[in-house]
């Protein structure tokens, strides 16, 4: 694929990726420990180090060959895939590679130039906790992925949500490489259900990549306590994946792995389309075996997670020597960095976007039509959830080009969403005759609130709705807060999110006493979200059907927001007419 017709041409890309991997790992180590860089390669002196070094050094070092392999695979293919990283604390890897490649948003481009002054500002800014007089961050750099990070989609501070979202992210024709953490494997249920949801008819190609370095913060990860990658490979096979082991220390392995995974998934899709295979497709899954912190002192130890040196180099001569010896092995002369950068800068020749502008980072979704609701006359009684059900069906039918995800923990009919369920149907691998089930249904149903809300959060190229009992909606708060914070920061930078806003409806609520007493009631869902900025997190309590459908319509007229709607199920008299409800 792409514009490289000979092995020699391709090897130039491989060599450039290898060169930049060394340079980026060198820069990651500086981001943790140093206050400046020396591009001549001279050892750093005591005064060149930070007094309080911080960083998730080991995981960031492991992510460098992965992200560079992804970038080089794009250059070889002549297309720009999207990327996602669940372990957002490994941001130093992404920032270092982006800076070496010039793949930056304007505020970073101006501050972090590819010279000694610019890279010294980068390492000095990292974990500086600088703030401006008005209390906002003082530098365009964070401890986790944030909207300054070119191409970043989620903060990834709360592990486990990337695993639940990636299947629902790319639209047909798009490709996504999702970098995942073996530590996050034990965080959330639902990541092993990916093949249960993936369909070639409405999903793009996905390549999950686990960085299997064997450690979380204080001890080995569960995967390695259970038996390592052999155990994990068997686990994946039992859960509908096709595991592919690669060398996580080598960007060339990631390049090959991405091409191999995509070609396998594409071939399976074609076989399904031709009627020679049936769903579920075994999703290719790369397991990148490596050692936590490979390439730097302390690799493989518990300390490698954060600051692997035995002490602070500014005050300890032994640690200073270990640092200088480690970075000397990674050092790449400046001229070679620029040469490798030019090799991977194929975007103009291939007429493709930069990695910072990959398809998932540039969503812009608006409804073609927002149908006028059926307004009830005042004093006429109806369930507000029935009214929402009727209006959502009208919205879906009026906007047929949009992929739909309706997140449902289990009780759509109890929640009065009968028309929506009959139209959209549960997505299942073995539809049961006579029930609202379909191989290609748009209702994502699982007794796991994090998994179903993540189906909606991942589907930023389409239209979404989530419905839950009030108490169980509390389990969605962590995922929602991550998205709310990220979207709010995007807005503050003047690059607001342009995906269609997402309504999350809580029923069986405290004031209604709708079902099963206090076990199904928890007013904290709305109360917690009131603590977020209301231009991004809207909290509404519609008291009747007219106000409920007015809120639903208004939500879908906006972009980059989340609407927490606490809505009754019981029949209630309409107290607002249509005009008042819209007001």
TrEMBL record:
One of its GO terms (biological process) is carbohydrate metabolic process. InterPro entries: THDP-binding, Xul5P/Fru6P_PKetolase, Xul5P/Fru6P_PKetolase_N. This is D-xylulose 5-phosphate/D-fructose 6-phosphate phosphoketolase. PANTHER family: PHOSPHOKETOLASE-RELATED (PTHR31273:SF0). One of its GO terms (molecular function) is aldehyde-lyase activity. Residues 18-254 form the Xylulose 5-phosphate/Fructose 6-phosphate phosphoketolase N-terminal domain. Pfam families: XFP (PF03894), XFP_N (PF09364). It comes from Marinobacter manganoxydans MnI7-9. It comes from the Bacteria. SUPFAM superfamilies: Thiamin diphosphate-binding fold (THDP-binding). The lineage of its organism: Bacteria, Pseudomonadati, Pseudomonadota, Gammaproteobacteria, Pseudomonadales. Coiled coil: none annotated.
